[in-house]
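Readers of this paper often ask what the protein records in our data store actually look like. Nothing more is needed to write down the fold, since each code stands for a local backbone conformation. Below, we set out a record of this kind in full and without editing:
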Amino acid sequence: MKYMTKLMNQTKVYKLLEKRESVFLNQVKDAINIADDMLPQINNVFNTYTIHGMKHSINVAEYMFDLIENAEEMSDLELVMIIYAALFHDSGMIVSDDEMVGIKDDKILLGNRRYSKVLEKYKNEKIALQECVRPVHGSRVNEFIEHLMKDNRKIFLIPETTNISFHKELALICQAHNEDFSWIANNLKYDTVKNQYYLNEQFIAVLLRIGDYLDIDEQRAPLYLYKYLKPNDYSNLEWQQHFVIENYNKIYINENTGLKEIVFQGQSDTPSVHRKLLKYFDGINSELLNAVSLCEKYEKKRYMLNLKTNIINKIYTTGFSFSDFKLSLDYNAVTNLLMGEHIYGNKKYGLREIIQNSIDACKTMQETAETHPDFRLQKYEPFIRIVIDKDRNQVTILDNGSGMSVDILKKYFLNVGVSYYKSDDYVLQGRKYSPIGHYGIGFLACFMLSDTVEVITRHFEENKVTRIEFEKSSEYICLTYEDKYKVQGTEIVLEYEQFMETFENNYNGIVRFIENNFLNCEIPIRIVIQENGQTEEKNCNLMKIKTVLENCIYLNDYLNGVEAYISCNYRDINFADKLEDLNGNKSYFYDSDNNRLVVESDSGINIRDCVKDEEINFFSVPIIGYDEAEEFEKAYDVLEDFEQALDKIDYETINILSIDCDEEQFEREIEDGDMIIGDYTFEDFCEQFEHCDTVQTHTFKEKYFIICNNTFPICRTIEY
């Protein structure tokens, strides 16, 4: 008998099966022998890691058993599962020679990670291979056990049956040790019955996770092996934290409380190692709290964990002082800083951030759909909608992009400052599309538009819909799962009144804002207005990037990782030396001597003469002729919105500017008898431009930021 096999046969859980003369014993022996032969293959890829072979399995099995309150009440199958889970939970780290070749050739993607991209990051072939396998080694157990089942079916069968197997349950239990804790309740059962044997899959998974955590000491990281391997960087710290722990037995019973306690004893002389160890302890404490909470829900007492939910830290420091102080952040202070106008300058830019997130999601989905089987027969057509629903008092920005999985939500979306698009989970996929969002704070911009935010999302690879509700003033959220059908994508739901107030209750203003801030990337953006039971749609006519780029200055060579260019404004004008260059409308200056509006080219005034504090202000006036007036009035009676009614007719807009123009003249309604500018009356205006004198007339303020140099003024495309 092999040495390690013999040691496994000495574990408490195996001894209990022997005592019971369990009918499982023979196949358990076979399973141990198989594991003893196969687990050393983990070293083909992970030879610089701490021990993951039989010795680790033995230790984990012992810890799992010691956590049980009364092992005598466990079924034979549950005891067998403890041994099997300890043996096979790391089997996903085994990589065959053929598989290794496929990974390195980018023909096999593990967890969507592309080896070439991982190698590009780590610059080391061994580490790159490890980082392809390690994140998904839990889910890879399923494949390993299915393969094992083909050749060794007997070890997974309930004795005296020919078809009742527990291999699928085992695979999920093993996978659970590499997943988020919530995965256990969502994917494992607590009341399985196999023939006559009870099996609480969740409980075994909990034991495995804690047992795996506790196997940290020099037994798992022998000093002689460390000196031989000479690991560096991250692996070095992993090894060194094991050296700190001096006690092999870590589970004790407190005689005063009767609770089992997990105790770590040892000495630490290196601050960096100590910090890493403290973070490890935080992970264990979180695990213990979740585990005890889950087990308290079981009806059967044998599945209770009589366990203190935080570890006893008896690690003494030498050579440096230690306290349990941590850097902390005040939620309200930080989020108010990140979600407000401090960063964006204007509340309107909250909408820009939301739409950009939708564009990133659609572009990502577009790339995925090129090879995804679900879109083989039906082409993926991305879209973004802004549904302004006055009747329901809400505004919804929705897309049919990739959506967010539960894992993405927890790891990235709900962690402020952690960007999914900058994470290894995305970057190492080797995608062609590089999203804009890099900092993980863009979502907070929603709160510039609404004090409450609701997110409804479904990832294209998940069936469940996730709904999350936020309030600006609280870090607590409400998260629910729904089993209803929804196309993949995300909806952001905001309060109607707050949103519309930001855009001066002007639907056309929303359209203009979008058109001024986005270029056409083949994703249609549409405004849907629902009011009084009626629906109206407005398309955002976005400029094509090809058109814009014809006259621009590229900045790509100067800005690392940023695609950028300088353009005077989105209408292809780079340098503005005339007023009409700013927005394309015909422009006039007021000639006070003759009380007349003069065409800009005849005025003799340079635009530079009108710049004050790097800004130029003027107003524009829509001209409605007599032929169009009646149609306009009819539209206005129905829509009760000046700009919406304008959209229904053909009209011209002109710019008017005076060096001495008063602020009050910029934005107002003009009627018969009013002065438009100086002594220039409404009647003068109607006569000069053949404007209908009975129709409603408005002036609109225009404001641009101007940078003047010695040759010409340059207009930045910032419109307020």
